[in-house]
Amino acid sequence: MIALRYAWRWQVAGIVLLVLVMIAALVPKLPFHELTSQFRMSDKVMHIAAFSFLAVWFSGQYARSSYWRIAAGLLAFGILIELVQGTISYRTSEWMDLAGDAVGITAGLLIGLLGVGGWSVRVEERLK
């Protein structure tokens, strides 16, 4: 982890984000799911967006040398989501969702590599 003044707060916020993504992946389909299902591949787009955001989030707290750990951890998280969804009667497990997760992780870490990584350091500097 990058040396941060509020490191534990960033870590707690990251855990909260992971929990929120897990909850969103496991709740029964809500009315807005019907609206988004009109768009082709909307579920995959949601996976890409969620995992891109998570990758950018964690690239803010970890050095570039740890990006492979972020990728591995988020991919494992995606696998966990799919395994749990497979045990719930009202959700389905689709392995193509993992492809969306991987695309999102890759996009998010590329954004990190292009200069957004370490963003939490810049936020902390502005808070001083």
The number of distinct helices, counting runs of at least 4 residues, comes to 6
Our count of domains comes out at 1
| Beta-strand content estimate | under 5%
**Average pLDDT taken over every residue:** 90
Shape: elongated
Radius of gyration: 16 Å
Derived from helix and strand composition plus strand pairing, the structural class reads: mainly alpha
How many E-type strands?
Answer: 0
Fraction of residues in H or I helices? over 70%
Could you describe the largest sheet, including whether it forms a barrel? Answer: none
Q: Gap between N and C termini, in Å?
A: 20 Å
> Low-confidence parts, pLDDT < 50 over ≥5 residues?
none
What's the helix-strand series? Answer: HHHHHH
